[in-house]
Queue: 4 jobs
Job 1
Amino acid sequence: MHLEIVIGGIGGQGALTAGQLLAVAGMKNGKWVTNTPVYSPEVRGGSSNALVVISDQPVGSMMVSRADAAIFLAHQSVGRLLPSLKPGARVVYNSTLVQADSRRLHDVEHVSLPCTDLATEVGDVRAANMVALGALTALEPDLPLDWLCAALPEMLGASKARFVDLNRRALEKGAEEARGILARATN
Amino acid sequence: MAQKRLMQGNEAVAEGAIAAGMTFFAGYPITPASEVLQYLVRRPEVRAIQFEDEISSVCALVGASLAGAKAMTATSGPGFSLMQEGIGLGHMMETPFVIVDVQRVGPSTGMPTLPAQGDVMQAAYGSHGDYFPIVFYPNSVQELYEYTIHAFNAAEESQSPVILLSDGYLGHLYETIEMKRNARLRKRKRPPLGVGGRHFTGLTSVDNTPTPQNPEAHRRMIARLQAKQRKVGARYAHYEYISNRKADTLVVCFGSLSRAVMPLADRYAIFRPILLYPPIEEFSEIAKRYKKVVVVEMNAGQYVRVVQRLMRRTALSLPMIGGDLDVLRLEERLKWITTAS
């Protein structure tokens, strides 16, 4: 297994947190992982991206140039990260914030999901990153939902243990909605 | 086997320092190095203090070292510039400590959240006068941990400040590591200040007495320091060399950038010095096997000068400046420079 994932968002959306959950989940399942945060200096509203590699082998280059999968949490991230996607990459768009005309990438397998709205439904708008990650597990066979749910307590730590349940529900919600969309598309 | 953990590069430096027996840390926060200080203030076994600036931080290291403590600071380019005077003082007074420079795009404030390798020359030549620093530059979170321990040991062996270079990518990179101590820890050889006679000013000295007007004594002192640094540096002449019999080009790279070069090992031979200074002499023999040598670095061409001096011939310089390291662009430019010349 060698999986390269990019997560793009704007500061505060939790792109880096989502990257960290992927890295912890990979490590807990015996993989070699890297998570490279790349962000601009603005305190709020700047670009904030996570480049994640999960592999059976020690990771050579941690700079992702041919990503197998991507999550776009905000409109601004699409243009910036587009060149680093592999043809046929699996993509999750947060359709609450990524405009329809940006969601027409060729040559990718994608799901558009209103992650921000769904997160509010689950209980907290800040869980949009987890809804998107959950949706990615429906598209990406190498990334089981169980890995992410099981990694939550370690990633959040004792001081944030009370948020495990909310984040788990957000992950499950994203996975369920994405599976529904994919099932309708094939029928 | 030690347990695998997910750790940030800056945290690995802090853990490495604790494993090396560091008890004193002085520093001033700066992106992308702040996490080292933030991590250490939570550790009860370390006296970690935020000073008013980088100048006082490095001076505190000199004092702590004279008092017998193993000491370290972590900074980035602008702070590293401010520390240069204190680094020279540390060399003159032969006080061991470790300076970590997590490089970012400069000069001055530059682009604080983006990585660079612009301090490669400053690390060796930033202070004034003749001094011969030992400088390491690892390329992974695992190596950052291990080479922090090596840096403390090399500081004790050479009785001098040792530089550990890192960069914005490595410092903020989260990666799997196995924490295992890789070397026996070196202990302090000299008694602390206050026990016996000890020279502790910035002046040239003879037998622990300041001797400001003695050129012959100064020449002897510089020769002694140079020989000592060379000897200790040779013990740490660590590098990674990936030979390639089909290639006519040897690519020299280091730090985070070298990680982006490694996937090209099918096309090029690769030499990655982990010890940047004193330069690895063995390199000149390795370079003879290749028609072309390209030095790729995230600066306008700094270490290429060292490489040329070692080889006594011209090397190609491929600068990758701006902090937006793009693997495809690197691949393209390497191809272009090796075919165009």
Note: Chain B touches chain A at residues 4-6, 31, 111-113, 169, 172-176, 256, 259-260, 262-263, 325-328 (CB under 8 Å).
Job 2
Amino acid sequence: MAGCPESLMLAWADDEYVVGQQLITLTGMYGPDLEEAIAIGSIGQDHLGHALHLYRLVCPDELTVNRLIYERETTAYRSCHLCDIWRPDDWAFIVVRQLLYDLADYERACWAGRFDDPWPGLTGMMARETRLHIEHWSEWCRLLAQDNYGHARLVEAFNITWPLAFDFFVAPEQVPDSWSACQDAWVEVVQAIFGAAGVPIPEGTPTAHIASGRSGRHLPELAHLLSEAHAYHLSRPAWQWE
Amino acid sequence: MEVYEVFVQRRKDEAAMHVGSIRSLTAYLALHAAKEVFTRRDQCYRLLVVPRTAILATADEDADLFSLAYSKEYRRPEYFIHKRLTGSSRMG
């Protein structure tokens, strides 16, 4: 098997980077309790760690990694709409979005294990960490579904994120056809988990987005996140760590 | 919402050490929270969480029960060795 297409690596790295940055903005600040406020920071760091592994595979050296992360325009990012959207003050939204994303990311990691070294080891590690995140978020989904208010909030969050989630599976260029099977596997497991929580899932799949995040057309939340996250670096671009 | 006590076993051949506590709605989330809060940096072979209600403990007022042990010298091994060497009897 050949190596992983670079377009997929970059899209994957951007997905993980955006999700990681979003989560760590909430560290210690927001969560249903203190433990979650701390946990959300650790989970965000896991995502950023994955992003860094992937960026390093795309770039020849650390300086290029920095440039790739901090100096690209928003339209040059290849993250999907499911990652772009962000509602930081809505716990049900965070639970649903993370669960949908992590389930898709898990399918992607299992699928990408077929490529040559270092992919089997790397994706094995990422799949394991993503598996833990899935357990965490699905437990929260189960808890929220236990009362009427939580259930209503879950349904509301699901209706917002479900159509956007299909942007995840828009294939970047040069990706093998076997990629499309990931979406089917993902839909099945989403139906199982959210069905158990009593969240109604619309029939059929939304039509493919022409303006896909994979082509650089993003939701407004992404530009806001990146401008805030990169402000420090851009104010001191020549500085380096000693 | 229950309190869970968290124990970290750093290596396979070491005992689990108490590192702190976690508040959580379920045991499963408690284990996850404990992973994120207590195993961020140090090595961990196994993580355990126990509901505080499952733990039996002595009361604060009974702390002096343990301090009396120091006067029970006959329970210490070296008491009897010393007796053999000197030939004297502490009991008499």
Note: Residues 119-144 of chain A form the longest helix (26 residues).
Job 3
Amino acid sequence: MEDPKTRQLFLQVLQKTKAGRITWTPTANESEFLTVLPGELALLISKTYEPDSYGNPDEQAAMVLRGEDGELLRVEPGDTFNWSEFAELYELARRKALGVDAKVDKLLGDLARM
Amino acid sequence: MKDHLSRHWGDWASVVGLVFSFLAFVFSKRASKAAREARDSVLQKSFGQDMNDANRAAAEIVYFVSMDRGDMASFRTRELMSQTSYFIARWKDKLPEASKKNLVKARQQLRTIQQKISARAVGDMSPDQKSQLSRACQQVSSIFSEEHGNSIRATDKEV
């Protein structure tokens, strides 16, 4: 079931991440990234590979909104946002959290001097 | 002059009264400002002490993880998570937005650290997983250290 408010939240986060107005941080889980939103809320985005009943890796992804009292929202790609939209946000968050662009820029500079 | 004073003593008394009232108003304003500054300074020191204690606890978590002492790390993480919730509730009206965000980030990092430690013994983690865990613990320690530093700086400015 599509939840318009959650979709709006997702699109706002995607847009503000693209604009560089939301900063992402790595967490203790290598495939999970965190940002803090106004109102003392934490937003997590994660992608994991759990084995299915046949033992094959099954991709699981979620966007989770947490407040003081715990989990407020947990949304998986589906009706509210599709896999491709989720993958875009996840990749942007990952790149920002790990500082990928800055590191690649530095590497390119170093390579140019070699 | 005497004649003028004897005729207008009431007017002069009013003027003198007005001057004294104005002076009393100015001094009471100053006293109130000084009291407010003293209270803010005490609160700032109290917040600084909280952040210093939290920084020590976070440094202990970093140490326990490095020694593969998941049980102790887990115990301290749960403790610090509760304390951080208390700090957020206690100081939310006094702190700038950036500090509040920092504390919420620390609490969420601690929650993820706790999940990670509960799911697998630190000693059984791959080097990459352990390194990721250590970095998250280190980040929590840095957050409390930064907030402690901010608090000291704010106190120094008042002196």
Note: The domain at 40-158 of chain B is CATH 1.20.120 (Four Helix Bundle (Hemerythrin (Met), subunit A)).
Job 4
Amino acid sequence: MIFDPVLLQQVINGLSLGAMYALLALGFTLVYGILELINFAHFNVFMVSSFIGMWALELLGLSGQSTVLGGFALVGALGFAFIVTMLAAGLLGVAIERIALRPLRNVRGTAAMITTIGVSFILFNVILLTAGAGSMNFPNPMPVVRWDVGGATLQLREVSIWAVSLVLMVALHLFVNRTRLGKAMRATAQDAEAARMMGIDVDRIVITAFFLGSALAGAAALIFGLYYNFTSFIIGYTAGLRAFTAAVLGGIGSITGAMVGGVLIGLVESLGGHFFATRWADVIIFSILVLVLVFMPSGLFGRAAAVRA
Amino acid sequence: MTVGETFTWLRRASPIGRIQRQTWERIAIACLFGAAILFPIAHRNDGDIDAAANALTFAALALGLNIVVGLAGLLDLGYAAFFAIGAYTYGAAASWQIAPDWSSFWEPFQWLGLVARFHETSGDVVHFQVSFWLMMPVSAAVAAFFGVLFGFPTLRLRGDYLAIVTLGFGEIVPIVARNTPSVTNGAMGLNGVAAPQLFGWSFGVDATPYYYVGLALVAFLIFTSQRLKFSRIGRAWMAIREDELAAGAMGVNRTKMKLLAFATGAAFAGATGTLFVAKLQTATPEMFGFPVSVMILVMIVFGGIGSVWGVVLGALILQLLQSWFLEDLSGWLHSLGRLINVEWLQHIELASSIELIFGLILVFMMLYRREGLIPATRRVAPLTTEEQTAAPTRGGFEGLKGLGALDERRDDPLLDIAGMTVRFGGLVALREVSLAVPAHSVLAVIGPNGSGKSTLFNAVTGLVTAEAGQVRFAGADIAGAPPHVVLDRGIARTFQNIRLFPNLTVLENVLIGMHARLATGVVEALLRLPRTQREEHRARERAMEILAVFGNRLVPRADHVVSSLSYANRRRVEIARALASQPKLLLLDEPTAGMNPAETLELADQIKSLNRLGLSIVLIEHKLDVVVNLANQVVVLDHGEKIAEGSPAEVRRNDEVIRAYLGRSAAIA
């Protein structure tokens, strides 16, 4: 079977975008699974993390795309950036939960969700006022290595994005399904009240969910920077809404769903841009969001799925 | 008397106190609007008047969002979309954007003054010049249409999902505007939108006329909001906000009322959009994005969700903060910086941090003052010690003559259920249950927990769908009818785990029970003609008569929020709310649960009196003495099946019943 090379190229791009959206969608799904809260702050935790990732790379003396590293230096630099970004993002998520959301834990209705919108606005404007409105050149030490696959180009950075995403998702899967804390998390997601009565510290579970979700957003943010070579204060909104759509499409609350949904939305974005005009891509994605919520609110893997965190 | 005591006396001395307070309120409102009218005359700074006009625009938007979010409880995160629709509707009808070739088709419109014939070198074209004053209601109607269109898919969605879908629609509208340049001129923005004209005089670019139009619009929308809020319509919206399921069971047509809320809110935004685009004489898609929707949301959260004056105040403060105060404050900081020679103070621009301030306000209000600046619910004076400790008096039933009256004498059962089966996934909650309730009788349904008693009520009242079976009520088939229709036919119910409207008063809860029996619609609520006033007056009188059934337990607390009542009183309010719908049949789900023996006796006595007045009753009850005391007939359910029926004495002797309740060995012994 022979693919149209342009189409194949779009599939490759879509998979890379999808890997990023999947990581970001996991943050929505982890928090929703436990608190039934749509966390709008997640949009801009992602955006702030991309700046943290940029600063971490600049700390190593890297700037722009001219400094190319290889071998251990490259792995070390990227490893350092990933660890710093994910830790910082995770702590930011924990701080948001602790300061703004915990006091509202038992408030009925949409108060907590409205608060996350406020937090998102604060993060957005803090970056806008401190880093400015211009788009920033993101340091990228990766050498340009290309392979030709059926007429399409596959780059080293794409392969590494897939690898990193896969490792993180497998790690999360193992954590949720194989560890004691992961079991406590699944129990809390099923019934927080019963979990509390069985001796599970629900506050700790919520903190864990925020930490893990935000850390994954940190990884996604670094991937964004390395993929597009820029960052800006506005990236959170679009990427966040797409990732949220991915989480809804997969079935919000379902970890498998977030992963599959992320990849699907990535493909929709690249192929939608291929078959229709790019400027309609967002309308297609928002239409998916609305249609799924209205006609299939449990998504592809919601509720009935075995893994639900 | 101290000031506080006087105030309490004024509030409590009904009806004189109420009238006095209303008078003061009217004087305060008149002063407020007087000052607003004089403002541009006294203060001749065009920039400030312009800022005030913009602030009024946002006050109008906040009033519209308050209908949707504050009254009906539907969190709309894409509200700016309706603002955009209103703006582009006027923009397209009164600008150079759309200019088709001239043909004779347009002549009647030219005669009406809606279009003009314009000569161009390539041929004559049509120039749309529809009057601003005509387009304001038209834009409102167009936006209302889209409100219904966008609202329709969201009807069945829960709070947070609804928010996301509205956000999606809110994003789609500006993108469509950007991508259809033939109508909207895309990202460039509309060209030369016509300024409004009044008797041949054009408003031009001077801010003052727009200020007055904005003021009139806000005044009208405040009036509309207040009239709707304190009417049958507003009560139905608030009932949906408080407990959607209970609202349906009390006769509120949820589909209709939710769409009405979306349409009303959207109409407010559509009319405001017309004013906004006329004032700016252009419109770009960026003016209607998510940040604008959030800004309006911040305004109503700040002012007080659900509070009409609160949201106006919130919008005005936040807008004027942005355009007046932050500029001044930045100026002062610059001077301070020069004075003490600090470099960064001289460059600080607070106005650019307005969104940061909005975010902070949103979070702080949510954490520390969720009710906003002016809370929607008023505090009422607490009961005096004498009122609190007064001995319970017997209820009066004089006001309830005609309760449970049937149209004709019937020999067949009032309620006749045949072969009802309800399944939840694999679980059969009811299997082939049949029972009949004779008119004017009391039927008790008993059975162990999980035997399907409440499911039976839910299936009859349309809250769950029965898989099979027939339900006939007063001769008509009501199987599968939605809850509000069932209530309208004459079946009212209470819930096992009390479902009142927690943040509404006792009186409001009972008035919502009357929803199906009152006729006031939007137009009547707005006009408030003598006929409507009489209806409302009678409804309130009747509500007080119904509360009097419970003696002095509820009457002194009529203006109290139900969440502040004791458990037993909340059960009584729920029964009063059900009685308010003038039912023929009352379904009571464990009415005495959580009551002490004395309260149980009192309530059983009151239920008996209701039955004597002619009301038919089905009762789920665990206390067997109550059952024996009240019921003519008993039906026993176990594991979803009817295992026995008969008089209380017969059922007591039935082996099956003893086994179901006490286990096998007890039956053998």
Note: Confidence is low (pLDDT under 50) at residues 13-18 of chain B.
